[in-house]
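ingest -> fold -> write
write: protein_1
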Amino acid sequence: MFLLNLPINIKEQAAIERRRSEEQKRLSRIFNVKYRTIGIDKTALDEQVQERQYMKELEKQRNDAFDREMIRNDLKQRLLEQEDFSEQRQCAQELNNYRLLYQKPEDSREWDLNDPKKWKKLTPARISDDDPRLSLSSGQKFAGEDLQKSIRKKFQQEQLKNYFDLQVKF
């Protein structure tokens, strides 16, 4: 009679199980068309994939660090540009204030040439007929000219009117 219920040695059972799994893996490798035709080393490829993923992660971390650095540098540059702009504006304001206080147009050497009210400020060429500034060679006074002609005519007209009034009364 056969004893079927005999306990099998655990070591033998583990060895049998190991052989079965190895045979199963071998059969899967044999019947796997891609693996059989290319003849790839699965462990090496897995290592390469893991290494590539690790390198991608490192590159991503590096790019993120560069992005943060770029943002920080942009902020610094913007602040420096604002400071520079405000400095230039301050200098321009101070320069304009200096010009307003100390470089007035009427203080310049050429103001007598550029003065818009120059003609109003000038004295006339002659004030009266007996102006002491007039000489013979000035060419300002000629025979027959009379600056007080209009005043004299008014005075003469008033005199004539007075004479006429006196004659009418008598």
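write: protein_2
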Amino acid sequence: MLSIVTLPNKILRTRSKELDPDILLSKEIQELTKEMIPIMYTSDGIGLAAPQVGKNIRLCIIGKEATPEKVDDLVLVNPIWTKLSRKKLIDVEGCLSVPKTFGRVSRYKDIVVNALDKSGKEIKFEAHDFFARVIQHEVDHLDGILFIDKAKGIYTID
């Protein structure tokens, strides 16, 4: 049974390994993906990266509420994003792996994402505003970066 990993667990500070597309369709990876989705929702998350459940692989899930269509959860494997412009937006972020802690984070407003989907198909798409923010946050996890590393005005709540 998977559970959310929190600081000071070292996996959160480790760059994740690329996932070999040949094992993407393996039972282990498919079960991991299926198990991560309900964990994300029961924890009130909008995204979840594999390191947050103790797995050192470049896989993350973006909850459907963060996607433009709001229909399906989005699985991203080996995601890479690039900015589309210099424009950034500042907003408050939190993280399931840094409980009860929040801060203002500046993120690019518009990005383009290259990744594999859950079936191993190459995908490329633009993401804007909140959708772009969530993707940047989750990809940071895959690089061992937490929002608190970028945040200003960090505060905690009980």
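write: annotation protein_2
The domain at 10-156 is CATH 3.90.45.10 (Peptide Deformylase).
The first helix runs from residue 27 to 42.
pipeline exit 0
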